[in-house]
Design brief:
The structure is a single chain. This protein has 7 helices and 9 strands, in the order βαββαβαββαβαααββ. By secondary structure, it is α/β, with parallel strands linked by helices. The protein has a 7-stranded mixed beta sheet with strand order 3-2-1-4-6-5-7, sandwiched between helices. The model has no long low-confidence stretch (mean pLDDT 97). The structure holds guanosine-5'-triphosphate and L-phospholactate. L-phospholactate binds at residues 113, 115, 117-118, 132-133, 136, 162, 164.
Length: 202
């Protein structure tokens, strides 16, 4: 199976701009990418980074400057056989969680993200194409249905937790075991309590 990790390192994670400046967001996004790619590797697959510009890293990189959908759909059309698409901001992903995703049966396997996104996909049907953004999980269910694909979903806290907003950083500090969690600690982030919920402070 080909495992593709989309990554836009140019102005990443704009929703984290209340707490991280542009250089910090680049570094943090890169730390998450390394966590995701090395976790994929640890379950026996070589990730290909599908990036908007060249990335200096130990994995193969395919550069495609077009939109996310255009770049991913081109890979889906070009690659023969199963393709997994795993987002680069899954800082809580573990070998166990990704292993369950890759092993799940079905023509199309979806890992929903909190908030309506689609954090990972395994596509074994040649006609499956993506339509990211907004409530993409609904769109991906519909696309799978329309092409007559047998669909499955993976129920996983770790795969559902993409890191988009400042509140998600608390989850990384609570549960992350990799470079992203270490990066946050090195840059002064720690857990705090706010109105009975865990938050972050710096
Ligand atoms: N190749 C490619 N990857 C992208 C593109 N846009 C987003 N990504 C990647 O897709 C995944 C999900 O990204 P999002 O959380 O939607 O967006 P983001 O740009 O990182 O963050 P925001 O600016 O806060 O929306 C991350 O791994 C991004 O690096 C794109 O245009 N091309
Ligand atoms: C790419 C997008 O990510 P989100 O903006 O939901 O994190 C999606 O999953 O459709």
């Amino acid at each position: 199976m080909h495992v593709v990790v989309p990554f836009d390192g140019r102005e990443p994670k704009t929703r984290l701009s209340p707490v991280l400046d542009i250089e910090e967001r680049r570094e943090f996004a890169r730390a998450m990418l390394e966590d995701v790619a090395s976790t994929i590797e640890s379950v026996g697959f070589e990730p290909t980074i599908l990036a908007t510009s060249d990335v200096d890293c130990e994995w193969p990189v395919v550069v495609d400057e077009r939109t996310l959908d255009a770049a991913v759909n081109d890979r889906l059309a070009e690659i023969d056989g199963p393709v997994a698409i795993v987002m680069a901001d899954l800082a809580l992903a573990t070998p166990d969680a990704l292993g369950r995703l890759f092993a799940a049966g079905g023509d199309v396997v979806l890992a929903p993200g909190r908030g309506g996104g689609t954090n990972a996909i395994v596509a074994r049907h040649p006609d499956f194409r993506v339509d990211y953004h907004d409530a993409s999980i609904t769109d991906h269910r519909e696309i799978a249905h329309d092409i007559g694909a047998e669909m499955a979903e993976v129920d996983s806290f770790r795969l559902a937790s993409d890191v988009d907003d400042p509140a998600d950083l608390a989850e990384v500090l609570l549960h992350g075991e990799g470079r992203a969690a270490a990066w946050l600690r090195e840059h002064g982030f720690e857990l705090a309590s706010e109105a009975g919920r865990v938050s972050i402070e710096r």
